[in-house]
Amino acid sequence: MDTQTAAQHFADTWQHGWTHHDTTAIIALYSDDATHTSMPFRPPHHGRHAIADYIRQSFTGESDPHVTFTTPIVDGDQAAIEYRVHALDNGHPVTLAGCVFARFNPDGLAVQTRDYWHTTPGHR
Length: 124
Fold this sequence. Notes:
Blueprint: H1 3-19, H2 23-27, E1 30-38, E2 45-46, H3 48-59, E3 62-69, E4 73-75, E5 78-89, E6 92-104, E7 110-121
Parallel strand pairs: 1-7
Antiparallel strand pairs: 1-2, 3-5, 4-5, 5-6, 6-7
């Protein structure tokens, strides 16, 4: 699968999966031995199961998410994709804005991802 197609599928699936808290759909985007790092100084999550646990934990306390992902910027086997989320965090409105950098294998699965994101109170 070409990287542009893989990256767009990744963005579309994450957008839908996050909106519906569908961890199963999201985790299917990753290879079994993928690595995900959330923020630069956190320890990475190694393997599909650890990534799934992280995603499930991230959705805890979140409700009513409205999620948008931009069109991926692709270079070689990698892509950068910005995203924005308006949600309720334990009943309080928040906005999360971030970017995911993903590297894909020839089958179109993510083998390495890392996120940089920030949150702020309210919907912006």
